[in-house]
Amino acid sequence: NAGVIQTPRHKVTGKGQEATLWCEPISGHSAVFWYRQTIVQGLEFLTYFRNQAPIDDSGMPKERFSAQMPNQSHSTLKIQSTQPQDSAVYLCASSPGQAEVFFGKGTRLTVV
Amino acid sequence: GQQVQQSPASLVLQEGENAELQCNFSSTATRLQWFYQHPGGRLVSLFYNPSGTKHTGRLTSTTVTNERRSSLHISSSQTTDSGTYFCAPNTGYQNFYFGKGTSLTVIP
Question: pLDDT tens for residues B31-53?
């Protein structure tokens, strides 16, 4: 079990460019979560899928952020027109339903 | 959404001392996890403890569901325990809300 896999581990984008982050949940897990972590804001919830369906995206900045889960083996978080304030560590987690949650190592996004 | 308060915000211990970390939350939780994060590291699950008391090694977690609180006790602290500890409760098929964490520094 390789755990939750996130790629890339580090990404540097220029202001205004698009960034796509990938997450491969643990096989068999039905729930996938995306969080963002910064020193100032701490851990912020972004969005949550259950059985590939979007359940709660209340934490997503609607204008430029979007998330998808086209199949049970991966989810993507896309940020359009990246801004310096989007710089953060983006964390993906998965869970087998109403049970323990496991996190990936995260993707550190730097917008220059 | 769920409001999570963790205390203390930071803690400095001499190696060998014990630590008690508190987590209070605003809404009933059916799931609760404690996580540890070393600076720059992954969030590692320490306990999945929705109720009652659980032990692993030098760590003990106690959750009192109807009082909406949980605690994490670290006995005989070691320098390798340094890092940030997060509490995350949730209810049913909802997302986890995190507290701001307790930053622990253990000095030799």
Answer: 899 999 998 889 999 999 989 99
**Could you give the angle at the alpha carbon of A73 between the alpha carbons of A111 and A6, nearest 5°?**
30
SS3 B2: coil
- Note the pLDDT tens digit of each residue in A44-83: 999 999 999 999 999 999 899 999 999 999 999 999 999 9
Count up the domains in chain B and report the number. 1
B49: domain range? 4-107
Q: Is the CB of A42 less than 8 angstroms away from the CB of B100?
A: yes
> For residue B18, what is the DSSP state?
-
The number of angstroms, rounded, from the C-alpha of B49 to the middle of its chain's C-alpha atoms is 10
Q: What is the CATH number of the domain that holds A29?
A: 2.60.40.10
Asked if the C-beta of A60 comes within 8 angstroms of chain B's C-beta atoms, the answer is no
Contacts of B97 in chain A (CB under 8 A): 45
Task: Dig out the tokens for B13 from the structure.
Answer: 């211990």
Q: Once rounded to an integer, what is the mean pLDDT over residues B59-87?
A: 96
* B86: closest chain A residue by CA: A43
Residue among A31, A43, A99 whose CB faces B48 most closely: A99
Count of structural domains within chain A: 1
Residue recorded with tokens 């692993």 = B56
Characterise B73 by phi-psi region: left (phi > 0), alpha (psi -120 to 50), beta (else): beta
